[in-house]
Design goal:
Blueprint: E1 4-5, H1 6-16, E2 21-25, H2 31-38, E3 44-47, H3 51-65, E4 69-73, H4 78-81, H5 84-92, E5 97-103, H6 119-123, E6 129-132, H7 139-150, E7 158-163, E8 170-171, H8 191-203, E9 207-211, H9 213-217, H10 221-231, E10 235-237, E11 252-255, H11 262-270, E12 273-277, H12 283-286, E13 298-303, E14 317-320, H13 323-333, H14 345-366, H15 375-385, E15 391-394, H16 397-403, E16 415-416, H17 427-437, E17 443-448, H18 449-455, H19 459-464, E18 470-475, H20 480-489, H21 504-510, E19 514-518, H22 523-534, E20 538-543
Parallel strand pairs: 2-3, 2-4, 4-5, 5-7, 6-7, 9-10, 9-12, 10-11, 12-13, 13-14, 15-16, 15-17, 17-18, 18-20, 19-20
Antiparallel strand pairs: 1-8
């Protein structure tokens, strides 16, 4: 067996894991890997401008493809440290990312040398696992281990730290071409559990399915639909996962809670049986309160992680396993119920009537012709302009909070948000990653002006690599969530709340992208439609009414109130 340099071994391990796209930021700690990538014509390298943004791209890529994406933080120390927020985001979203980065040379580790940071300690809280390689022949082995662990069970990001001197070694290693087996997650509840479930459903008067990320990760939307349609049970969703089924399906209710809609929240409050499939019933959705959960409802909870079962709310049945597969098992075990004979048909008619009234009211609100534009006007125009295959990415803060249940998600997966980490600056970079993962789908990213200011450097990444996403920047000249809290709880004592922005459309043009400036009703829709035709990286700068902001986390200021 011919010896190969360790940089080549690292790239061969990526190839064996099925990698075709790599995001990264060049740095001297990993130049041996970069030199090997130069010859890897089957792997596309996408260079970014900032490590956190690159992590967001890889995170979104993993959420769309269901497979880990590679990010290379080329420079150990400061470059690696820049990833921490992106890693935290991926960990809290249970998103599979494999990160490769450098370390100081082995002879200098622990000596406080130039750019040395204790990366193992730094990354442990924000990763599923962190490896540090100490022998050159184990580099490819641990990279492959990282892929297996990242995409198994409850997914998450893995970091592989490699001391820079190890990459200069030559090693004898054998890397199988199919090193990563396809893992098919499944679980079939036993007959007694299925019988008990059937009893609970037939005893109930107001059952609701509440679906979460576990359905999407297992590509379980079809099974979920079979189950819901067979029994005529409405589907509500957890926060950030409003795309588990198409939003125009007759049984779709939408997201619950403060970022959702009142129809879905009412369904959940009045439910006597909640079938929680692939959701932890976590804080971002429930605030750990019964505000949007039926206080006397029996709960059947399914989650890939057994420790999540009954953790926040007591459950009648808890099942550890893949939510999509179990939804299919539920569907197979049940006799179909016709809409006209369903015991909860009156509730369903009321739900559908409420939903249509809410949607009608939403459209009426969206016809607001005031200037500066109200966000609801922008959302209404996006609903009209977005093709059926659109993937939306959202930021945290006011923009994401107001938009999350306003948009059409018709081809799951179709929504990517910061989820529990809720960091500003995520959406544009995530949209670039989503577009790389799904180049034939339209990708529209919504951001506030503050968040876009954090990530606008990646316009050049989009132009350089022909990543033709569309970013709608909603500019209200302030940090929206915080100024809303200062207005509501601090008597308009505004400090640090306002931002100064350039014309983002002009910045885009200077970078070689398309740019549009929107101030009038109807112009957002026109700009989006034109951007789809142009098929170029596009920034649409929309002037938004600064007074059209709202507080979402009022619970955080109860003592202040």
């Amino acid at each position: 067996m011919a010896k190969i340099r360790c940089g080549v071994a690292a790239v061969q391990a990526m190839r064996a894991a099925g990698v075709s796209k790599v995001f990264g930021l060049l740095g001297s700690s990993t130049l041996e890997i970069y030199d090997a990538l130069y010859d890897a014509k089957d792997i596309d390298y996408i260079g970014v401008r900032q490590e956190t943004c690159g992590m967001h791209m890889a995170d979104a890529y993993g959420r769309i493809t269901q497979t880990p994406c590679v990010f290379i933080a080329g420079q150990g120390g400061p470059g690696a440290a820049n990833m921490v927020l992106g890693l935290a985001m991926a960990k809290m979203a249970y998103s599979p990312v494999v990160v490769i980065t450098g370390l100081a040379s082995t002879e200098h580790i622990g000596s406080d040398v130039f750019q040395e940071i204790d990366q193992n300690t730094l990354f442990q809280p924000v990763t599923k696992r962190t490896f540090t390689v100490f022998r050159p022949e184990r580099i490819s082995e641990l990279i492959l281990d990282a892929f297996r662990i990242a995409n198994s069970g409850r997914r998450g990001p893995i970091v592989v730290n490699i001391p820079r001197d190890l990459l200069f070694h030559e090693v004898d290693v054998e890397i199988p071409s199919n090193a990563i087996a396809e893992v098919i997650s499944s679980s079939t509840p036993d007959r007694a559990t299925l019988n008990r479930l059937r009893e609970l459903i037939l005893e109930s008067k107001a059952p609701v399915i509440m679906a979460g990320a576990g359905i999407k990760w297992g590509r379980g939307s079809d099974n979920l639909l079979r189950f819901a349609e067979k029994l005529q049970i409405p589907v509500a969703t957890s926060t950030g996962h409003g795309d588990v089924i198409a939003t125009d399906h007759p049984l779709y209710a939408g997201q619950i809670g403060p970022r959702g809609n009142p129809v879905a929240s009412k369904l959940m409050r009045e439910a006597d049986l909640i079938l929680a499939l692939g959701t932890r019933l976590g804080f971002n959705t429930t605030f750990f309160k019964y505000d949007n959960i039926g206080t006397n409802a029996k709960i059947v909870q399914v989650d890939i992680e057994s420790s999540a079962l009954g953790r926040y709310f007591p459950v009648t049945i808890g099942i550890a396993g893949d939510a999509g597969s179990i939804a299919g098992a539920f569907a197979d075990a049940m006799e179909p119920i016709a809409p006209e004979t369903a015991p909860w048909k009156a509730r369903n008619r009321e739900f559908q009537k409420d939903r249509e009234q809410w949607r009608k009211k939403r459209e009426e609100t969206g016809n607001n012709n005031s200037k500066p534009l109200h966000p609801h006007r922008v959302f209404a125009e996006l609903r009209r302009a977005a093709p059926r295959n659109t993937i939306f990415t959202l930021d945290a803060g006011t923009t994401g909070g107001q938009a999350t249940d306003q948009l059409p998600y018709r081809m799951p997966p179709a929504l990517i948000t910061p989820l529990d980490c809720a960091a500003i600056g995520f959406s544009y970079a995530a949209g670039l990653g989503a577009k790389v993962a799904a180049p034939n789908r339209t990708v529209i990213s919504l951001m506030g002006d503050g968040g876009f200011g954090m990530s606008m450097g990646e316009i050049t990444t989009a132009v350089l690599h022909n990543i033709n996403s569309i970013c709608v920047v909603m500019d209200n000249g302030c940090w929206g969530s915080e100024i809303a809290y200062q207005r509501e709880f601090y008597n308009d004592r505004f400090i640090g709340a306002h931002v100064l922005n350039p014309r983002f459309d002009e910045v885009a043009k200077l970078c070689g992208a398309k740019g549009y400036y929107v101030t009038e009703p109807g112009e957002t829709e026109d700009a989006v439609r034109q951007a789809i035709v142009d098929d170029k990286p596009t920034i649409i700068h929309v002037k938004i009414d600064a007074d059209a902001i709202m507080s979402f986390r009022k619970d955080g200021f109860e003592k202040r109130a």
